[in-house]
Amino acid sequence: NESFFDFVPTILRALDYSTTVWICSFGIWQHGDVGAELHDLERCPFARALRGAEQVLVVTDTSAEVFNRCWCILEADLARQWHKPYEITLPEDDSEELWEAVADKLGNLDVSACHATVEADKQAILAYASNHCGGVEHLSCTVRGLSKSALGRARIHQLARRGDADTLLEAGERQLTDWRCIRGRTVEHVLASHSHVLALKRVSEAVGWLHLHAMDRDGKTPLGVAAEKGVIGSVAMLVASG
Known about the structure:
With about 240 residues, the protein is mostly helical. The protein is built from 13 helices and two strands.
């Protein structure tokens, strides 16, 4: 039900253009009988792709429908089991209505109420949850927690893009120190690239200029990202800071 016209720009904004992505709805046949394969996840195409991936990015929309799908719930738990970073991104980052819709979906997530195109697939996934995930309710709680954490990280990203230093600082030094986006960038990377010079200075001071030379997945520091985008104000401030 999601709009492809939302999906594409959301991916392009979240990831570097050189990133290779595997999109499960395009990459596997969606109408086969998977029930016979679920006892051995190595045989499931999405599971093989997930094992080979570095991380998982969930793209949702105003309906937050993705969190009602059995397959997506199973993928989230496998990402947790296999220690794959799990992130969420939204097409309208400044829409509080969208954030609230997603948060509400996560708060009420119930695997037993999720759906699949083929009912037999849903039953097979529920059986797998009972046998391998500590039960359906345990799986629901696990994925609620995983997704809530991912949503929290996504909101930090939103605040950094907006340059909302006051709310960022309320998150605390630990959050600001540990946070990374899916591209491996710190809050300072994001602030610098969006020319939020005052917010960049305040956040950098709050974490003791810890990330001045931190590199993202492409090996770029906040200064490097700002210079690449031609953000003169951020470049000047970062150069002056050492």
